[in-house]
Specification:
Largest sheet: 2 strands, parallel
Number of helices: 4
Strand order of the largest sheet: 1-2
Structural class: mainly alpha
Strand content: 5-15%
Shape: globular
Order of helices and strands: HEHEHH
Distance between the termini: 33 Å
Length: 100
């Protein structure tokens, strides 16, 4: 976790304040599980190159991630992506929409 790229990514995606930031809200099309992950990596690259914070759209809880609830997720979240992976950011979709 002390790799320079990891530190840069964490600083970018987890700002101390989400105010006055630019965002990219992403909702991938229906695809297989591996393609979901690959598409998120590509969109993250675009977000970094355009100085935007990547946020997954609230409707991301579909497709391969459908059916995730607080009760059946080991981490206790109803956010499908975060049931299996660490959060992408501390900023919320609501904060991103208010920034527009």
């Amino acid at each position: 976790e002390n790799h320079p790229y990891h530190n840069m990514l964490k600083k970018h995606q987890f700002p101390s304040s989400c105010a006055n930031k630019r965002f990219l809200i992403y909702l991938p099309p229906g695809m297989g599980f591996g393609a979901y992950l690959g598409s998120i990596a590509g969109v993250m690259e675009y977000a970094l190159n355009t100085n935007r914070i990547l946020i997954l759209h609230q409707d991301f809880n579909a497709g391969w991630f459908a059916g995730v609830t607080k009760e059946n997720c080991p981490s206790g979240t109803s956010q499908a992506y975060e049931c299996y992976f660490k959060p992408l950011t501390n900023c919320t979709e609501q904060e991103a929409l208010e920034a527009v």
